[in-house]
Amino acid sequence: MAVTLFAVVGSTCGYPINIIRKRNVYFKVSSSIEDHNNQSRVKYDSLRVLEWDKLCDSVSSFARTSLGRQATKTQLWSLDQTFQESLRLLQETNAAILMHNHGSFILDLTSVDLSLVESGIKHAQRGLPLEAKEAMAVLYLLLFVEALQLNLKAAIKEDSDWYKRFMPLSEMIIQLVVNRSIIKLIQKVIDEDGSVKDSASSALKTARDQVRTLEGKLHQLLDKIIRNETKEASFLDTCDINGRWCIRSGSDQLTSLKGLLLSSGSGQGNIIEPLAAVPLNDELQQARASVAKAEAGVLLMVTEKIQMDLDEIEKILRSVIQLDMIYARATYSLSFGGTYPNIFLPEDINGPLAESYRSRDKTLQASNPEKEWIFYLPKAHNPLLLQQHRQKLRMAQKDVRNATAEIRRRKSRGENMAVKGEAEIELSSLEKRVRALEESPPVPIDIFISQKTRVLIITGPNTGGKTICLKTVGLAAMMAKSGLHVLSSESAKIPWFDSVFADIGDEQSLSQSLSTFSGHLKQISEIQSQSTSRSLVLLDEVGAGTNPLEGAALGMSILESFAESGALLTMATTHHGELKTLKYSNDAFENACVEFDAENLKPTYKILWGVPGRSNAINIAERLGVPSIVVKNARQLYGAASAEIDEAVKKYS
User: Fold this and answer.
1) Is the pLDDT higher at 123 or at 510?
2) pLDDT at position 647
3) Pseudo-torsion of CA 164, 170, 174, 180, nearest 10°?
């Protein structure tokens, strides 16, 4: 029986798909969807283990508006930028930094509620009148852009070169069209507190005058009634109940007042609308309705004016959100001392860009004249570690200030010396903590990777900084791609990576009942299938979690596979000594290690390049006083194979 073909357009994960109802075609499409979902999952899992989400939160916190913060997160999580888009993002960030440093372009959005502007635009699109507060938000938005344009024009008038230096932001700002007639209209009819002015329309002024007159009459009437109730006057007062003026008694006892009992009991007293006040209250209700109608008429007039220029106001809103997002990236970079990264396509390394990179690498070429770096990241900080250290330092300094204030308070109260002494001891301890934090900032690392290197193997002790090194490189690559300055001592040179893949930590798939080892293998397998010649791959403790001999063999095979046909650059940490020897049989490999202070028996967190890490466990045991017979037996058990590895390390170090 023939099967009818028909296509249904749908979407999966935000991407349009064509589902063809024919068995063999349907399964091909389903497989394609599954592949796409799998690719997204691997990429997002990779960024999660790099803690990219925390960095995105940190950067977005520098935005001044809620819409700007959300837009910043969305942009940073966009993983499909092209090389040209990354260049544009960096140009925007750099221009924002130049504008900030110029001093005339502080992005002060504190008076602008972009969410109210957005809701006002939606009301106008539906033909509904804006609320007064929405109209005021539109006014402040237009005034902000107008001031920004005036500042920019003043800078350009002073020096015309500023227009080029501030590109592409100068073009973005100048091309916005602010309708002065909308500004004048809103300022004319709406007050700064968000209320419609009496002068906005004659009908409104008349209605409000009537309201004030009626309220005055009602107050006079109710005061007279209260004064006539001589016995109960002290327990009576006036109140507004749902827009009607009434008298409230201070007790639940019924009074002699003639009127409508609106509520009683509950310990709140009685609320009575005197009969004499009913006609005036009715008139007051009608007058207030006239006020509301007149105010709505004014707001409708404002809305109609805005509707005539709605497309341009929408464009201004989008541009200001984008400016807020750009300034978030810029102020984050300024706050943490970032530098502009030079990104390039790997295939351009020997093209026109090469000369400009070589001119920037003079210092390195002096000591390494034969090397041209494909990845140059001097004295780089992990942004999350740096942020964490700053937060700890700020908290410690705050504790010192609080302790100092407490000592002053106790002195002023003349408390006994023993209590005062305890406080001073606590202050001294807190001051020591501040000094300790100031003297031990996070240790920056140097990343120097030559062009010919495809796989870098990092060895060294646990807690020595190997994993932090991988995360620092991964975050730096993502920061450069996303338009952020990189936290290094000078301008970094970083390839533009289409994707950053990572297998770090003890992640495992509980839903698939996979062990830690199996989970790592599955992740690496998916990374290998999805990585391209423009990808960065970061593997932590490759080959770990199983029999050491099998793990080492598997690790070597995995890394050799990446070197032959895998990513542009693969960085792997390991404890397997066998992996250190790959460099000596394959030029695509390079070694590095985290330095270990043998005297103090602790890591220095510095990276040594071209040097494989050597085993320290037995030497440490010997220095710590482990019996010599135990050390001797350990060295024998360490085996001839491991001895050969160390011998190779000595030979080529």
Assistant:
1) 123
2) 59
3) -140
How far apart are alpha carbons 291 and 27 in whole angstroms?
65
What stretch of H or E contains 134? helix 132-158
The size of the chain, in residues, is 653
If one counts every other C-beta atom within 10 angstroms of the C-beta of residue 166, the result is 23
Q: Of 147, 172, 145, which is closest to residue 91 (Cα–Cα)?
A: 172
260: left (phi over 0), alpha (psi -120 to 50) or beta: beta
Burial 3-38 (b: 16+ CB within 10 A, else e): eeeeeeeeeeeeeebeeeeeeeeeeebeeebeeeee
Classified as helix, coil or strand, 227 is helix
Residue 175 confidence class, pLDDT cut points 50, 70, 90? very high
Strand partners, 149: none
pLDDT in tens, 401-438: 888 887 777 777 766 655 556 667 777 888 888 888 88
User: Hey, what amino acid is at 130?
Assistant: L
Predicted confidence at residue 255, as pLDDT, reads 61
State yes or no: pLDDT of 640 exceeds 60: no
Question: What's the rounded Cα separation, in Å, for the pair 86 and 496?
Answer: 8
Residue 131 main-chain phi, psi, to 5 deg: -75, 160
Tens of pLDDT, residue by residue over 319-343, are 999 999 999 999 999 999 989 999 9
Cβ-in-10-Å burial (0-12, 13-18, 19+) of 352 comes to: exposed
| Secondary element (H or E) of residue 392 | helix 383-413
For position 442, what pLDDT does the model report?
86
Residues 484 and 492: their CA atoms lie apart, in Å, by: 12
Q: How far apart are the C-alpha atoms of 571 and 600, rounded to whole Å?
A: 28
| Residue 542 DSSP code | T
| Cis status of the peptide bond prior to 168, with omega within 30 of 0 | yes
Beta strands 259-263 and 271-274, pairing class: antiparallel
Q: What is the DSSP letter of 294?
A: H
Q: In angstroms, rounded to a whole number, what is the distance separating the alpha carbons of residues 613 and 389?
A: 28
- Least confidently predicted of 321-335, 354-368, 371-385, 628-642: 354-368
Question: Residue 477 pLDDT more than 60?
Answer: yes
Can you say whether the dihedral through the CA atoms of 64, 67, 70, 71 is positive or negative? negative
| Tens digits of residue pLDDT in 128-155 | 999 999 999 999 999 999 999 998 898 8
Q: Are 544 and 551 in contact (CB under 8 A)?
A: yes
Q: Which two tokens stand for residue 199?
A: 């002068």
For 605, left (φ over 0), alpha (ψ -120 to 50), or beta? left
Q: Under a CB-based contact definition with an 8 Å cutoff, are residues 560 and 582 in contact?
A: yes
Measured between alpha carbons, how far is 385 from 427 in angstroms, rounded to an integer?
A: 27
Distance in Å from the first CA to the final CA of the chain: 74
Give the full edge-to-edge strand order of the sheet including 271-274: 236-241, 244-249, 271-274, 259-263
Nearest CA to 196 among 110, 287, 282, 131?
131
Segment 281-311, tens digit of pLDDT = 999 999 999 999 999 999 999 999 999 999 9
Please list the alpha-helical segments (H only) found in 414-506.
417-439, 466-481
Query: What is the pairing mode between strands 569-573 and 536-539?
Result: parallel
Q: Which phi-psi region, left, alpha or beta, contains residue 249 (left: φ > 0; alpha: ψ -120 to 50)?
A: beta
Which residues, in sequence order, are CB contacts of 114 under 8 Å at separation 6+? 65, 66, 67, 68, 137, 141, 317, 320, 321, 324
Report the alpha-carbon distance of residue 570 to residue 542 in Å, rounded.
11
> Does residue 295 contact residue 206 with C-beta atoms inside 8 Å?
no
